[in-house]
TrEMBL record, chain A:
One of its GO terms (cellular component) is plasma membrane. Its main location: membrane. It is a peripheral membrane protein. This is ABC transporter ATP-binding protein. Pfam families: ABC_tran. It comes from Candidatus Sediminicultor quintus. Keywords: ATP-binding, Cell membrane, Membrane, Nucleotide-binding, Transport.
Automatic annotation (TrEMBL), chain B:
It comes from Candidatus Sediminicultor quintus. Its main location: membrane. This is ABC transporter permease. One of its GO terms (molecular function) is transmembrane transporter activity. CDD domains: TM_PBP1_branched-chain-AA_like. It is a multi-pass membrane protein. One of its GO terms (cellular component) is plasma membrane.
Amino acid sequence: MLIIKKLTKYFAKNSPHETLALENFNLRIGKGDFITIIGSNGAGKSTLLNLIAGTFQQDKGEIRLSGEMISNLPEYRRARWIGRVFQNPLLGTAPYMTIEENLSLSLKREKRGLRLGINKNLRNFFREKLSELNLGLEDNISKKVGLLSGGQRQAMTMLMATMFKPKVLLLDEHTAALDPESSKKILKLTQNLVIERQGDLITLMVTHNMKQALEVGDRTVMMDRGRNIFDIQGEERKKISVDDLVKQFSILGNRKDNYIEDRMVLI
Amino acid sequence: MSISLFLHALEQGFVFGIMVLGVFITYKILDFPDLTVEGSFPLGAAVAAKVIASGGDPLWGTFLSMIAASLAGLFTGLLHTKLKLTNLLSGILTMTLLYSVNLRIMGKPNIPLLGKITLLGKIKDYFPNLSMDYLIPFFFLFIVVILKFIIDYFLSTEIGLTIIATGDNEQMIKSLGVNTDFTKIIGLCLSNALVGLSGALFAQYSGFADVNMGLGTVVSGLACVIIGISIIKIPTIFWRTIAVLLGSLVYRLIMIIALRYGYSLGFKPGDLKLISVLLVIIALSVPFIKRKLNFAERYNLGRKDLQNNDGKEV
Ligand SMILES: Nc1ncnc2c1ncn2[C@@H]1O[C@H](COP(=O)(O)OP(=O)(O)OP(=O)(O)O)[C@@H](O)[C@H]1O
Ligand SMILES: [Mg+2]
């Protein structure tokens, strides 16, 4: 269970640029749930994931994972439960380190010591895992990651985010920066990796693709101006169409105090 | 060139090579330009000289100098990670503070070690038949090789990999469960311990410690690292530590030749610092100029392009 209660986050608090990125945000996620999150630019989706991971500290509210309060732990202490993939494929891997070194770094997320980071057993394990990606990376495990393509790096990041059996998987538009072909592959990989965990993993996936949002996962949350405004699952979700979702978006868009348009005017 | 000139270059290349390994760890591995070394080099010299001059065991003095210098690294690390000062400012503060500390330790600006029992003298007792001319470079080579392998091993351990990753993609390694304050501090302590050891050995080799002997350590360290890495380009740790040591040799050779034969060109010893700065500027600008010339590479994503607003709080 991941329980998010009254989560609030300001940026540049008490300054002329103060932004309320997340406001009294509530969400309860059961074990095995795969949630897709949609919402316009600036809705607070990335902020939500960053707060769960501990990259940022909330101003108010709390986050509990399997009953344990994690919202006051630093990011590095939460990493043992949380796997992440970012939109930018360059963010998830260390370019000047080799494929096997990157994998080694992500496998053991606490109590690292003076043992060698890579040994024969680990290397075989990495080869096996890499071969499941079908990208031929298993034959190049001492290649620097910076030499790989964006799609290959994103696939590696996916592997790194799941290989250590996390409790939570956070995906922030992780297919958005890829070409359609790689994007499809990564999405397929995501689904396979989640299925592999047999309902033992909580997944949050941010996407701007409405079709994807409804097809993948089993619950969809829409965010607007830092709030959870729409949350559907089960039969209700099966019935809803992409058109309905788009309509929902345009209702938000026609609002008097239109946030998006305000922003456009300002730009 | 005479053989003795060459032996001098070896001696100095190796003894300063220990310092270069330290600079390599901060500058290249951690991506942390650490100015502390400007103070921790003479700190190492001061501590060792103080112990030796008062009749203490030189081995003990040398060991203490490493401890003292690693504390200097710790101090810089705390300024940077806890008080959030920039890496440059943290180093400058520690380096300046160390000037006073070093004077305090020594009690005077200069401690001569002539006639005292140094580490080199002790080694000589074991090999009475070997001339100092050969003993010294071999001794320094021995130490630097051992340190090289220790560093290579350390950087391939679980903790070592997280230190490399801290310099490569800090945001990533934080999200993989690493406290980067800790890795930075470890790197700084290790680096400065090496620099302090280098200072301690150099003092015993040259027969004195002086508060001003750290002047230019940063630049010469950088020069060695950059020269070395531009000669050997194999990007594994094993080869990179060899590269920087080779860089150290080449650099000392250039310096010794400049000092020896530069007179006829009008150089003075005081110009050495200028020469080393020019070396750094040239070495740093070569890849840049190459890139300017190479059109295709302009669009290459370099390391500094990796920053992105995700995960970085303004
Ligand atoms: N690091 C930051 N510093 C200051 N303001 C920020 C920062 N990150 C986000 N914000 C602000 O917080 C609000 C929410 O941003 P967030 O990145 O969470 O939106 P998002 O839903 O992920 O949007 P997008 O779909 O464009 O990725 C925005 O108004 C944004 O300008
Ligand atoms: Mg976002």
